[in-house]
Design goal:
Elements (H helix, E strand, L loop, with lengths): L1 H9 L1 H31 L9 H23 L3 H16 L2 H11 L4 H17 L3 H25 L21 H18 L7 H21 L5 H31 L1
Helix pairs in contact: 1-4, 2-9, 3-10, 5-9, 6-7, 6-8, 7-8, 7-10, 8-9, 8-10, 9-10
């Protein structure tokens, strides 16, 4: 097992690139399938419509994943030992110059920066009286931030190496604030843009959002600012509120069309 972690530490940038490519391919495939299925069912290109049963399934999936990760960390299962071994391998294998480049990427998902950007977007939506977007936006971003902070205070997991890895961090480690806020912010932003951009821009919009979310999350593990399970939990929590925000937005749009 030690040789496996050592190999991961030596090839982590290659693995990062592979994961990013796979995330892009998966996001593109889901976009294509959703669009094709909606066209076949209704003859319309409104593939952004999230059906209630689909939203309920996704909420249950992401909620369950988050709870399971909380339980695994809280009860110190084998996942905790895996996290520690991976962090140690990265700490021993990665050079400071490489980590310096990775640190530039992680800044994109700084929670404080994203909250400022989220407030700016909310202000623009409010000034434009687009309440059908404003309310879901605030619910998704506000819910993510509030639940993330509550989870940190409940689990109280210490940072890898006491928060003194390549980047010094304060606060608790679980879940990753960068991962959850990136998922909610860039996901909701992409959703809003898809409603405003011409269809030819949709594919690129989805690809950019997926790339940003994947890059920020992985960078936190590479920098040893978070354990892998912290990032996975952050993704699950952010995705839960993202789905809830999109489902609410679609409900409000449906009601407006009905009136």
């Amino acid at each position: 097992m030690e040789s496996l972690f050592s190999w991961i530490g030596q090839h982590v940038l290659l693995l990062w690139a592979i994961v990013l490519i796979l995330a892009l391919l998966a996001g593109d495939r889901l976009w294509y399938l959703a669009r094709r299925r909606r066209l076949a069912a209704t003859g319309r290109n409104d593939y952004l419509a999230l059906q209630p049963h689909t939203a309920a399934t996704l909420l249950a999936l992401f909620g369950t994943l988050f709870v399971l990760l909380c339980w695994a960390v809280w009860t110190h299962t084998a996942l905790v030992r895996f996290d520690a071994a991976l962090a140690q391998a990265l700490h021993e294998q990665l050079r400071p110059d490489v980590l310096g480049v990775v640190a530039l990427v992680t800044g994109i998902g700084q929670p404080a920066l994203l909250m400022v950007a989220a407030a700016a977007v909310a202000l623009l939506l409010a000034l434009g009286r687009d309440w059908r977007s404003f309310v879901p936006w605030c619910v998704a971003l506000g819910g993510t931030a509030a639940c993330g902070e509550a989870a940190k205070q409940f689990v109280k997991r210490a940072r890898p190496f006491g928060g003194h890895a390549f980047v010094a961090e304060t606060g608790y480690s679980f879940p990753s604030g960068h991962a959850m806020m990136s998922m909610a912010f860039f996901g909701m932003l992409a959703y809003l843009l898809l409603h405003r951009l011409p269809p030819r821009r949709h594919r690129a919009t989805v690809a950019i959002a997926v790339a940003l979310v994947a890059s920020v999350g992985i960078s936190r593990v590479v920098l040893q600012a978070h354990y892998l399970s912290d990032v996975l939990a952050g993704y699950a929590l952010g995705a839960f509120w993202l789905v809830l925000g999109i489902a609410l937005a679609e409900r409000l749009r449906h009601d407006a069309r009905a009136r």
